[in-house]
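Colleagues,

For the teaching module next term, I've prepared a clean inverse folding example: a structure given as tokens, and then the sequence designed for it. I'd like students to try predicting residues themselves before seeing the answer, so please don't circulate the second half yet.
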């Protein structure tokens, strides 16, 4: 239970990200990481322009002053003189960075004199410092003499923070024993001068910091050192006492008095100190004072905030890195490694806020090998997943997700290798689904994939769970059934499946009626191996399709023979036009009563060297099934139009030419252009061309049929409905089409003499056609009694064997030319007269 969860978390990158977050937490307090943070801070500090304020002045007890005023320590009277000079010269406030913790023994009045000078100035600050008597001793405060402290305006501490690398970078605004009550010397100097730094400048890091027992520090700030070694203005103490021109340097300045002489006073290494040089403590205080005056003190982010921000930055960077692909992850890695410190430097420059970036950066660097392992495993997992997906796609249909033909062939190959010791039967059912001819096709088909999925689900539900349902191609499905006791069981399964598929299928708001054509083959009874089983079942299904059978076709040698003959017919039909094997025959159409030959119908015949004379009833269905009917139809239209025009030009016309259009021709988008091209090239008068369209072609799509027929009528040609009465149209539909004629099917003509129902239907068709101003022609007329009855009913024209069989062009010419006549029937011994 736990391993899958861990694996899932790892795959999503959660565990690697958490690992880097924990790593960042662990190294956030590491000395090496902190050292690098300090180096980064020093680098960014030296890039900043932290110029020392012009209001800050250091009065230095330097080597020159010691040479002029005597060796250290000086008498307190000298300090008093210095302070009086500063008072007279107009200094804003004065701070002595010198400890006056003991009384002067050489001159008992010196301390009093200095105290009086302090009182006269009124804005003097003295220093207090911590002292550590011994390793186990509590830390104490070193305070100025009480006399001096009472005279001073304020007292400030001079305790600075020394980092682990020995550099001074920060100070605390407040410090003291048990309570951080002493302000820093520079802050005390501003306070006695009546200057209050901005609140955000003195809030600082609020984390209390205890350095030693009893000594407490508060509100840490980083010092904005000026990298310029001559940044602090310095006035030598002996010049202050001897040169009145120094007044211009002292006026309105904040003065810090302290030692800069060699070996005297405290000195500290700072980030801006030159190599092997250190900065006197009084100058460090000058930089602090300048930062307070100009509001440039640098705040360091608090410990809690630092930790939260470090972990957050690490998490965000790791999430992006571990969820990106190569090379994007490499780019993100370098952007983070360089960008996090850069952002820290920008924050330091813009907001005076320092965020140590190395814990986040180092965790990403240390975690980079982990990303490499994760990326490698992720790539392998993706490749494996992609391979599995490709394998699945290769063996399954994209629309239905059913196994496809490759999967079926694989299963059949395994079936061939298995022995049939138990005597069980395997059956393969191949189903072709047709739906465009059903009523649902007129209501607007839904998404094809949705329809196919619905069919697949219905088939899946109709068979056993172990049976293999496959989707072979667009409209072909298959079911492999194993473990049957005999062939009859397979036939029963096929029957049940056929019944299920013939039920209406609900697709969105419409009901769709499917027309399944099903073939069945058995193993090992009929098919000897898997390949043969698939071939034979497909052959049986094809046989069911060409027969339009609603029952399951079971494979047999007879079925194989029929399909083979069909295949030979298709192959021969493909090259029939190129080999000039087709010929157009013409059957006369006669005006009822007068016997005048008014037109001919073009009928196709096929003379094949091997098959002999092939009649349309045999090869037209094949041509329609293969789509060759379009090319054949174009050839017939072209040939017949040219032939009739030749007769016209020879004085044998004019004749009306009737040409049949197959349903595929009628819905062809190029039909209009082809008719125009044929009329133009042949020179035939459009009024002499009549196109016969079947009911089924017209009724498949009423609106498109109307539009197509109107376009053809605009050319001036005639339109007729062929085989009327055999389809599912009604006479009322005829009024919506631009028709000229309807042709009564031969089935009605055949029964018009003997069948009362047929007579009534035929009479109704003729009467309704007359009301719609449509002419009527009856085909299949074979007897005088049929001619008589049709004449009585008012049929306009007749066509059939009674008058003439379809004739080749050469024989029809003799008929038209009067050199021959039709023998037998109503016109036996008479010559048919053509329209002149």
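(Answer key — instructors only)
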């Amino acid at each position: 239970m736990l391993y899958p969860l861990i694996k899932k978390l790892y795959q999503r990158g959660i565990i690697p990200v958490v690992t880097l977050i924990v790593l960042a937490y662990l190294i956030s307090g590491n000395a090496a990481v902190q050292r690098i943070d300090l180096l980064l801070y020093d680098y960014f500090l030296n890039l900043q322009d932290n110029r020392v304020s012009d209001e800050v002045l250091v009065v230095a007890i330097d080597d020159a002053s010691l040479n002029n005023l005597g060796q250290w320590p000086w008498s307190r009277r000298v300090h008093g003189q210095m302070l009086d000079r500063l008072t007279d010269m107009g200094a804003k406030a004065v701070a002595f960075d010198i400890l006056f913790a003991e009384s002067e023994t050489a001159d008992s009045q010196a301390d009093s004199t200095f105290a009086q000078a302090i009182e006269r100035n009124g804005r003097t600050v003295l220093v207090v410092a911590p002292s550590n008597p011994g390793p186990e001793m509590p830390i104490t405060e070193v305070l100025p003499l009480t006399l001096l402290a009472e005279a001073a305006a304020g007292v400030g501490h001079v305790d600075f923070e020394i980092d682990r690398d020995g550099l001074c970078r920060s100070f605390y605004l407040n410090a003291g024993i048990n309570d951080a009550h002493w302000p820093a010397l520079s802050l005390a100097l501003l306070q006695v001068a009546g200057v209050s730094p901005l609140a955000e400048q003195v809030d600082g890091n609020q984390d209390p910091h205890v350095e030693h027992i009893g000594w407490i520090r508060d509100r840490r700030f980083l010092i904005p050192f000026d990298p310029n070694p001559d940044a602090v203005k310095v006035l030598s103490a002996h010049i202050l006492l001897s040169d009145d021109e120094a007044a211009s340097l002292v006026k309105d300045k904040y003065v810090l008095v302290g030692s800069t002489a060699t070996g005297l006073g405290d000195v500290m290494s700072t980030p801006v100190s030159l190599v092997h040089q250190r900065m006197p403590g009084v100058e460090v205080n000058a930089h602090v004072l300048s930062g307070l005056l100009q509001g440039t003190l640098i705040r360091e982010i608090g410990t809690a905030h630092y930790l939260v921000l470090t972990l957050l930055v690490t998490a965000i960077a790791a999430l992006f890195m571990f969820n990106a692909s190569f090379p994007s992850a490499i780019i993100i890695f370098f952007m983070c490694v360089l960008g996090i410190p850069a952002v820290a430097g920008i924050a330091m420059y813009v907001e005076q806020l320092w965020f140590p970036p190395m814990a986040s950066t180092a965790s990403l660097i240390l975690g980079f090998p982990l990303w490499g392992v994760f990326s490698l495993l992720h790539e392998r997992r993706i490749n494996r997943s992609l391979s599995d997906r490709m394998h699945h796609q290769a063996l399954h249909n994209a629309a239905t997700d059913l196994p496809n033909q490759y999967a079926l062939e694989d299963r059949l190959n395994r079936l061939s290798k298995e022995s049939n010791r138990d005597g069980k039967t395997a059956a393969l059912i191949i189903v072709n689904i047709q739906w465009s001819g059903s009523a649902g096709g007129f209501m607007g088909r839904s998404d094809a994939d949705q329809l196919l999925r619905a069919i697949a689900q219905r088939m899946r539900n109709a068979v056993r769970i172990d049976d293999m349902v496959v989707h072979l191609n667009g409209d072909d499905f298959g079911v492999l059934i194993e473990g049957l006791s005999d062939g009859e069981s397979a036939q029963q399964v096929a029957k049940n499946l056929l019944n299920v598929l013939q039920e209406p299928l609900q697709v969105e708001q419409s009901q769709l009626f499917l027309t399944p054509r099903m073939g069945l083959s058995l193993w090992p009874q009929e098919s000897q191996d898997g390949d043969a089983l698939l071939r034979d079942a497909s052959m049986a299904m094809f046989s069911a399709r060409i027969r339009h059978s609603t029952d399951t076709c079971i494979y047999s040698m007879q079925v194989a023979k029929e399909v083979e003959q069909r295949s030979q017919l298709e192959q021969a039909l493909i090259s029939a036009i190129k080999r000039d094997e087709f010929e157009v025959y013409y059957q006369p159409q006669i005006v009822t009563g007068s016997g005048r030959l008014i037109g001919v119908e073009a009928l196709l015949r096929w003379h094949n060297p091997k098959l002999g004379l092939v009649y349309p009833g045999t090869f037209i269905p094949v041509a329609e099934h293969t789509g060759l009917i379009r090319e054949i139809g174009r050839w017939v239209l072209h040939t017949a139009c040219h032939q009739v025009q030749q007769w016209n030009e020879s004085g044998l016309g004019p004749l009306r030419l009737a040409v049949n259009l197959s349903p595929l021709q009628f819905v062809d988008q190029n039909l209009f252009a082809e008719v125009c091209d044929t009329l133009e090239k042949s020179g035939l008068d459009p009024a002499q061309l009549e196109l016969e369209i079947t009911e089924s072609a017209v009724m498949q799509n009423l609106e498109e049929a109307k539009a197509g027929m109107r376009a053809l009528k605009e050319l001036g040609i005639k339109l007729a409905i062929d085989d009327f009465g055999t389809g599912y149209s009604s006479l009322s539909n005829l009024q919506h089409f631009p028709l000229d004629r309807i042709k009564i099917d031969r089935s009605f003509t055949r029964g018009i003499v003997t069948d009362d129902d047929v007579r009534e239907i035929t009479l109704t068709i003729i009467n309704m056609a007359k009301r719609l101003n449509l002419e009527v022609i009856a085909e299949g007329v074979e007897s005088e009694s049929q001619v008589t009855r049709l004449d009585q009913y008012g049929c306009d024209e007749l066509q059939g064997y009674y008058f003439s069989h379809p004739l080749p062009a050469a024989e029809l010419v003799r008929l038209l030319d009067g050199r021959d006549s039709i023998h037998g029937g109503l016109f036996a011994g008479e010559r048919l007269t053509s329209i002149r």
